[in-house]
Amino acid sequence: MPSHLKTALLAAGAGLYYVKARRERARVERLAAAALESLLNAIDANDPATGAHCRRVAAVSLILADACGLSDQARSSVERVALFHDVGKMHEALFDITHDDHALSAEERQQVKTHPQLGANVVAPLSMFYPDLGAGVLAHHERWDGTGYPRGLRGAEIPLAARIVAVADTFDAITHHRRYDMARSTPDAVEVIFAERGRQFDPDITDAFLSSAVQLQVCAAMQPFPPADAIAASKRQQTPVHTEVPDVAFRWHVAAAGKALSS
Ligand SMILES: [Fe+2]
To answer: Which residues have CB atoms below 5 A from the ion given as ligand 1?
Structure first.
């Protein structure tokens, strides 16, 4: 066979292999995204309050990720960690404790502290597709000063996604009614987060959160998703109110449903 024909055949074979590999990779990505979507649906179905909390935290975390100039890949990692950071609270051992409106006993507080590990265990099978997810979920209650849990990581030892989610999680916990704590105002949340700069939170991420640009974006993003007590008040006053949660995972729907998996 003439050498130029051999070269052309080899090039055609390599091209075909490349196209096939790309198609297979896209298929695997859609399967993994569908698995995440199903897990998110399971959270919403079993515990809508936690599902809504996680989606709000994800919306704020994405604003912070953009303010910190993260790459698309790192941004997606932040989104996933935010969406599943509290999945461990749905564990049978913790569900009653975390869903009852009584003040926690010391023993119950210790039990609740197992939820990052329980959550990491839930998402562990997805580590092949999302290697950062488990570590992020595990570390979302670590503190910048090293006094957090479960491992007492300090500073940059804490995965970046977990440091971002920690700020967004605290903001949401303060501004939305949870358990026996009534929701407080955004300025209250900002004050708490500022006070924890360099203690609980990464100073750079705190500065990004406190910037006026981020504050405006967060307020705009959260406006359609008011705290439960604000919803109750507007119902009493018969004013219209939106009660949906941010659909931050919409790109997964597109990824999973865009094409048949067999294509
Ligand atoms: Fe948590």
So the answer is: 86
